[in-house]
Design brief:
The protein is mainly beta. Helices cover 0% and strands 34% of the residues. It is built from no helices and 32 strands. The two termini are 25 Å apart.
Length: 491
């Protein structure tokens, strides 16, 4: 059984290499600014369609020649942080978007080594208004050179791959599709890419290794049509080896479209990987009460270190017209993997304000509990940990707390959980200094219209430390400061 720590994502990590089609390190594309409009604080616009518009798409920690290459784009053993701003104005085009890659180093994120990437800089056509380059950003080693590649969506049906290199990201390829997720679905040691179509239930599996022109070794269509007629918007949302057979499985969210035409997640289904590449529909995930498990963000990680990926789902709000509180309150849920796709030893876990041991007085009776989750190993013990934000009052405009829950033999619990009242929005957990204990990076929201800031808290044997955080602002990235929070991350 292949043991590995698998994670699925909503922050961005990348590294870059000056070369054709990529803006050089420490430079900014002319005309690139961020919009001054500050988005509403979460969860006013949770990820809909189950697919993550600013997705927590599949993020994996695994072998460097598979989907597990977790944003180490120069292959130096330190993960690289990708900061995205999909609403950025680029060359006069509103919401054209960009991604900034900050390389990891022995001292952590090194802003002296950074790279701004836009669609315009790739040499594959000019971005239009509303393209939102940087959305659904993930990483995987598609060409098999031992370095992660940056994969990101722009528009409704275009995916760009920017290739990793010895020094930086360099060169790019353009593919058709949306909501990209990556994993080794046939178990051959090469990373594969799944994209959905812009409409309908048809997806495409592209099997690695890829050429630098973006050509896969082979492709297969994948029918994701739900077997329940009322759920007709399926989207890939996560990847992990939930049954431990050495082949990654695909997590798919089924959504229902209500009168306001916004897809609202209703079920989560696992499609099993196979040696021939024919992914087959497997278990439909249920909570401990036997009800469908679903939400706006899907992650995978091995929180109990048994060699099986566990599926983590964040249900922060419902989107049915106006944002609505989910039945039973907002929450985080975990379905544990096993030989059949489900654990026989651990029942599904629900994390909410009634979970024993949670610090910081979080509440889950309204919207927002479980917002912007991220997963990784913050103390280097081999168990995946989970961080997320939660409100500390019934009104979602009240203060929030960021919680870090520790994985362990009993799964995800409140035991040894830590909290920080530092204001953090979207989060990512990545080992930026290569010491085996991952750091927690968080974007900060500013209701007063202040500049965007990324705060990085160090990991270590005792977990996340709130002392001496690293702060990264617009000026540190060579960008023009613009009031209003909007930084996000990719994986």
């Amino acid at each position: 059984m292949r043991k590995r720590l698998v994670t699925a994502l909503a922050l961005t990590a990348v590294a870059g290499c000056g070369g054709p089609g990529v803006v050089p390190d420490s430079t900014v594309s002319p005309g690139l600014t961020r919009t001054a409009t500050a988005p509403e604080r979460p969860p006013a616009d949770p990820d809909t369609a189950g697919a993550h518009a600013d997705p927590d798409t599949a993020r994996t920690h695994a072998d460097p020649d598979t989907a597990g290459a977790h944003a180490d784009f120069d292959g130096d053993g330190k993960e690289d942080l990708v900061i995205t701003e999909t609403s950025a104005t680029v060359n006069g085009k509103y919401a054209a978007g960009y991604a900034v890659v900050v390389y990891g180093s022995t001292a952590g994120a090194d802003t002296r080594r950074r790279q701004v990437i836009t669609q315009d800089s790739l040499g594959l056509g000019k971005a239009g208004a509303g393209g939102r380059f940087g959305g659904a950003a993930i990483s995987a080693d598609l060409d098999g050179d031992g370095r992660s590649d940056l994969i990101t969506q722009a528009g409704s049906n275009t995916v760009f791959v920017v290739w990793g290199g010895k020094k930086k990201l360099s060169g790019a390829a353009e593919l058709t599709g949306a909501t990209p997720v990556a994993g080794d679905f046939d178990g051959d040691g090469h990373a594969d890419l799944v994209t959905s179509g812009s409409t309908g239930s048809e997806a495409t599996v592209r099997f690695g290794p890829f050429t630098r022109a973006g050509e896969p070794a082979r492709t297969k269509p994948l029918d994701l049509t739900p077997d329940t007629s009322s759920y007709y918007t399926p989207r890939p949302t996560g990847v992990g080896d939930v049954n431990g057979d050495g082949k990654d499985d695909l997590v798919v969210t089924w959504s229902h479209v209500f009168g306001d035409e916004i897809p609202t997640p209703r079920a989560t289904v696992v499609y099993r990987g196979a040696a021939d590449g024919e992914l087959m529909k497997g278990p439909r995930l249920k909570d401990a009460r036997g009800k469908d498990m679903y939400g706006s963000v899907t992650l995978t990680s091995d929180v109990n270190k048994d060699g099986f990926a566990d599926v983590i789902v964040s249900l922060t709000c419902e989107t049915i017209g106006d944002v609505a509180v989910p039945e039973g309150g907002s929450r985080l849920m975990v379905a544990y993997g096993g030989k059949t796709g489900r654990s026989t030893g651990l029942k599904p876990t629900t994390i909410n304000d009634r979970t024993v041991g949670l610090p910081g007085n979080p509440v889950s009776s309204g919207c927002g509990f479980g917002y912007a989750p991220a997963t990784g190993d913050v103390n280097g013990d081999g168990y995946a940990d989970v961080a997320f934000s939660a409100p500390t009052g019934a009104d979602r405009d009240n203060n929030t707390v960021t919680l870090v829950l520790r994985g362990g033999p009993k799964g995800l619990t409140g035991t040894n959980a830590k909290s920080t009242d530092l204001p953090m929005g979207p989060t990512a957990i990545q080992d930026l200094n290569g010491d085996g204990a991952a750091e927690l990076a968080g974007g900060t929201w500013s209701a007063s219209g202040g500049d965007d800031t990324v705060r990085i808290l160090s990991g270590g044997p005792s977990g996340i430390s709130t002392s001496g955080p690293t702060l990264i602002g617009s000026a540190d990235l060579g960008l023009e400061p613009t009031p209003g929070y909007s930084f996000d991350f990719g994986h």
